[in-house]
Amino acid sequence: MTTASISRPAVDPALVTTITGAFARRRLAALAVPVLILCYLIYTAFAFDLGGLFARARMDNAAILVSDFWSYKTHVTRDNRSGDLTIAIEGEAKGTYPAGMLPDWVTTDGATTRIDLGDGHLVTYDADGARYAIPDYGTVDIRPLNGKLALTAPEPLPDWISASDNKVSVTTDAGRFSYSRSKVETFKYQPGWELFFFTLDSPFYGKSFTELVALALWQDRVDPARSNLGYMLAEFWTNKMWRHGDVAWALFETIQMAFLGTMGAALLALPLGFMAASNMMPSGAVRFATRRLFDFIRAVDALIWTILLSRAFGPGPMTGSLAILINDTGTFGKLFSESLENIDARQVEGIRSTGANALQRARFGVIPQVTPVLLSQILYYLESNTRSATVIGAIVGGGIGLLLTQAIITQKDWEEVAYYITLIVLMVMAMDALSGWLRRRLIKG
Amino acid sequence: MVDIAFGPEPEKRPDPAQPSDAYLELTRRRRMYGGILMVIFVALMVSGFQLAQSRNAGDFLSGLPMLMAFPAEVLSEAWANRAEMPALVLRFLPSLIETINIAAVATLLGAIAAMTMSLLATRGLARWPRAIPVFRRLMDGLRAIPEIVIALVLIFILGGGPVPAVIAIALHTGGALGKLFSEVAENADLKPVEGLTSVGATWGQRMWLGVIPQVAPNWLSYTLLRFEINVRASAILGFVGEGGIGHDLKIALQWGQGRYDEVVVIFLLLLLTITFIDRISDRARERLVKGRRP
């Protein structure tokens, strides 16, 4: 070190201090940024009450959600006063088995009902009360006695049985069973989305795929008035549980809002973009005014536009389209005017030299240059607006966004929520692929 | 040249004796296609708007005069109560800060996730080159799920408050920024990475010292743009779900007359915040991308 420095010309000590200082500052900055970010995150963890969040989190809701996503439950209910038995999928009127129709795991014999929950779990309702036979444990026997419930079960009671004088409930892996004075109820969980194709009242319910194909292709008509295939499609389309027709219409409405909004905004923004571009519009006052208009539209957020428009036009898809249209006019205007300012002036000059007027110069000199850029921007926004239209739909009451929020607010039909989420994701991905494909086609020519 | 322009098929080749005929023929055909496309497009737009209008509660022309009625009503009431405005501003300031915090935390977390995912999904830089498609599809999936879906589901599980919104926006941001980040990283110069490899640097060191310094300005610029977008998204999520100034706005609007002064204050706060953040991020991005030192 010392020998080397002797042979070198002397280094300016001021330079050394500047450089070492700069290095030290850099090192400090490299350390300070992560520390600052960490401090900010810690501050927000307190501001957002992260500790209380874990206390408030409802993990049982999460369990309901996850199980509803891939399974459905069937309620087998007996009214203890009248003795009537109802079997309903998800406990809904739309999914109630008609009289005389039973799933194959329920058998009735006079007043006795036997429910096979699988894996040896057997529930029996009879005139005396109800019994639940659980393998490796024993039988839970419940009989009403003097207005109270008498429970006989192997002692000690495990924690998955809760018992009081008025209600006994048992939760096992196979299902749930509860007995109260007014009714006895058993839930059986099965995988899948039941009634997805045909509801119970449809003549096609419970048929296998090959049976359906046979019916559609060569077997006799179920309804003499129409073909089996048409009948099947109609039954599927008007399915009361899943409402496929309404859902398809809602998806279409969402895409429609995005399309109308984006294209309408592009049509409006094109002339405005010309008015705001410095190489197109000689008048500074007009340029200034147009640019401030864009700034204003962009600053008044999409949320505010949506609210203002829904007050004037009422709920519905047109309001959603107009909200997207207005909001994107500002964005497109800014983007378009920037692209117009970046064009090659020589082409315009060439057109001008032939004696073309301003409109002809724009049509033949400017538009051909900017079209690929503008189209690419429009298509990109079409894709991102499909997502926005879902959210805006939830506010203005149109499209799949409305269906989704309604299904979530009722906090009941999570299988429908799962269905809608799947469809939304597929829709957005399809629009993404479509817009990407079109962009590649258009830009490469 | 002619081969390149018209393709190899001999019959499509124009007659060299009559160049203007071929040109005019070509233009005519292009004009016709353009015209047909235009007609289809206009028909789609017109029928689309008519359909949308028929499904709407109110129609366009009768609603148009009403467009100013609501703002006028709101503004006149707010003007009458203008003395209370400063107090209201102070009252809504905490929820405004919450909205901004939601956006900031979500942008930070999303950007950090996007950094890792994008490097793992970039050809030439990935730690496990075979896993590139996995990370790409992961980012596509994150981008495709709208924020509102995640937010509403999380509100059901976690209860109200800002955290569901943060998670929802962060996941979407991770996907969206990841794609942009990866496009930037693809163009990074690999020489520093090779140099670091030659001295035995680990993957993390190669990325941190070789790639990040190159891409940082562009990444930061995209992150700022995303922050701007996320502030808007956070306000909207508050309106649909819970938390922040969007929620206050919803309550004030549901109350209707009598609380319009609050509506105006919230609108103003949102407008000013968005304009302010817009300006700041515009400046900063210009400086970052054009490389001017402050």
Tell me the layout of helices and strands:
The complex is a heterodimer of chains A (445) and B (294).
Chain A (H helix, E strand, L loop, with lengths): L1 H6 L5 H35 L2 H7 L2 H12 E9 L5 E5 L16 E4 L2 E7 L2 E6 L2 E6 L3 E8 L2 E5 L8 E3 L3 E5 L3 E6 L2 E9 L17 H9 L10 H10 L6 H33 L7 H16 L2 H12 L3 H25 L3 H9 L4 H39 L2 H12 L3 H31 L1
Helix pairs in contact in A: 4-14, 7-8, 7-10, 7-12, 7-13, 8-10, 9-10, 10-12, 11-12, 12-13, 12-14, 13-14
Chain B lengths: L1 H5 L12 H37 L4 H4 L5 H12 L4 H36 L11 H13 L2 H12 L3 H25 L4 H8 L4 H38 L3 H12 L4 H31 L4
Helix pairs in contact in B: 4-12, 5-6, 5-8, 5-10, 5-11, 5-12, 6-8, 7-8, 8-10, 9-10, 10-11, 10-12, 11-12
Word description of this protein:
The complex is a heterodimer of chains A (445) and B (294). Chain A is α+β, with helices and mostly antiparallel strands and 445 residues long. Chain A folds into 3 domains: 48 residues; 120 residues, no CATH class; 201 residues, Orthogonal Bundle (MetI-like fold), CATH 1.10.3720.10. Helices cover 58% and strands 16% of the residues of chain A. In chain A, α7 runs parallel beside α10, α10 runs antiparallel to α12 and α12 packs antiparallel against α14. By secondary structure, chain B is an all-alpha fold. Helices cover 79% and strands 0% of the residues of chain B. Chain B is built from 12 helices and no strands. In chain B, α5 crosses α8. Chain B starts with a helix and ends with a helix. Chains A and B meet through α2, α3, α4, α7 and α8 of A and α2, α4, α5, α6 and α7 of B. Chain A: It is found in: Cell membrane. Chain A: Pfam families: BPD_transp_1 (PF00528).
Helicity range of chain A? 55-70%
Roughly how many Å is the radius of gyration of chain B?
27 Å
Task: Determine the CATH superfamily of the largest domain in chain B.
Answer: MetI-like
Question: Mean of residue pLDDT of chain B?
Answer: 84
Instruction: Count the DSSP helices of chain B.
Output: 12
* Residues in helix, % of chain B: over 70%
Q: Which sequence of SSEs, written as H and E, runs from N to C of chain B?
A: HHHHHHHHHHHH
Distance between the termini of chain B: 51 Å
CATH class of the largest domain in chain B: Mainly Alpha
The poorly predicted ranges of chain B are: none
The count of β-strands of chain B is: 0
Task: Provide the low-confidence segments of chain A as ranges.
Answer: none
